[in-house]
């Protein structure tokens, strides 16, 4: 009995360790004191509050408006009536809907999506809300001041966190034309991170990744994709088209990030869960 209890404790500590620290190559430290604690029992019994930050895949999903990019397609290849089983085939670009940009997306000699260590997919989450600035300027780029102002109100961003930018752009998700906001000259207009903000998050807070509720980490007007280069060259990942960020508090939750494991892939559709300490009584 003592041996079984000891093994159970060791297993629990190992799982908790996945959330708060990494090990080995391409692992980002996450040794800050956690904002909240959720036990495995609470999570598995439904006592924790889970917010799904993922849009369902369908042929209306936003995708990057460039040559060779195509909409999501789902084709039925077997039916219960004719084959006794329901089965479908899907096709889509890696970078469509809620998805992850792997470090090799913009940089050579960086991990592909299947090479990212699992420990980096578990992290404390932070939401930086810049919806007010975006309502006044669709091309707003989150600045270092936006980040430090947030810290003055909510405390330091935890080391090894994943930072999510709430711009309010999810309001337009179901209208692709409005979501990409392309003008008559073909220029896209939507918010993103500034290069300085991306550098600051990586250097000063050692984030595991960054994300937001738009088509790109870079603002729509970007031509050189500096933010992608900064994030990917540091071995970090990006999350784009993240849903329901308005349902999250500024901090005090954890993220579970589960991209499709595509061998040599530059990214892929991704399921993202935010885990909060207790169920929202209004849900």
Task: Walk me through this protein's architecture.
By secondary structure, the protein is α/β, with parallel strands linked by helices. The chain has a single domain, classed as 3-Layer(bba) Sandwich (Glucose Oxidase, domain 1), CATH 3.50.30. It is 25% helix and 21% strand. It contains eight helices and twelve strands. It has helices spanning 2-20, 40-45, 80-83, 131-136, 144-154, 176-180, 195-205, 226-233, and strands at 49-52, 73-78, 87-91, 99-101, 122-129, 141-142, 162-166, 192-193, 209-212, 237-240, 253-259, 267-276. Strand 11 and strand 12 (267-276) form a beta hairpin. It starts with a helix and ends in a 7-residue tail after the last strand.
Question: What order do the helices and strands come in, and which of them pair?
Answer:
Elements: H1 2-20, H2 40-45, E1 49-52, E2 73-78, H3 80-83, E3 87-91, E4 99-101, E5 122-129, H4 131-136, E6 141-142, H5 144-154, E7 162-166, H6 176-180, E8 192-193, H7 195-205, E9 209-212, H8 226-233, E10 237-240, E11 253-259, E12 267-276
Parallel strand pairs: 5-7, 6-8, 7-9, 9-10
Antiparallel strand pairs: 1-12, 2-3, 4-10, 4-12, 5-11, 11-12
Helix pairs in contact: 7-8
């Amino acid at each position: 009995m003592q041996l079984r209890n000891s093994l159970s404790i060791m297993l629990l500590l190992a799982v908790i360790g996945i959330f708060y620290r990494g090990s080995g190559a391409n692992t980002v430290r996450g040794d800050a004191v956690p904002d909240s604690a959720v036990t495995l029992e609470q999570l598995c019994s439904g006592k924790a509050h889970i917010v799904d930050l993922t849009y369902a895949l369908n042929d209306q999903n936003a995708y990057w408006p460039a040559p060779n990019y195509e909409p999501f397609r789902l084709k039925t290849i077997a039916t219960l009536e004719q084959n006794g089983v329901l089965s479908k085939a899907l096709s889509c670009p890696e970078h469509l809907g809620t998805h992850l940009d792997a470090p090799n997306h913009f940089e050579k000699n960086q991990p592909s999506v299947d090479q990212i260590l699992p420990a980096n997919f578990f992290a404390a989450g932070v939401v930086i809300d810049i919806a007010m600035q975006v309502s006044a300027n669709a091309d707003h780029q989150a600045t270092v001041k936006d980040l430090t102002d947030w810290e003055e109100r909510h405390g330091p961003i935890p080391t090894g966190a994943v930072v999510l930018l709430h711009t309010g752009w999810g309001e337009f998700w179901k209208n692709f034309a409005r979501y990409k906001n392309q003008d008559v000259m073909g220029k896209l207009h939507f918010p993103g991170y500034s290069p300085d903000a991306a550098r600051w998050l990586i250097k000063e807070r050692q984030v595991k990744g960054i994300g937001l509720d738009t088509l790109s980490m870079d603002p729509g007007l970007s031509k050189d994709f500096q933010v992608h280069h900064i994030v990917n060259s540091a071995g970090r990942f990006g999350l784009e088209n993240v849903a329901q960020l308005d349902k999250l508090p500024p901090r005090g939750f954890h993220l579970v990030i589960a991209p499709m494991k595509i061998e040599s892939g530059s990214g892929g559709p991704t399921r993202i869960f935010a885990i909060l300490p207790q169920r929202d009584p209004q849900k």
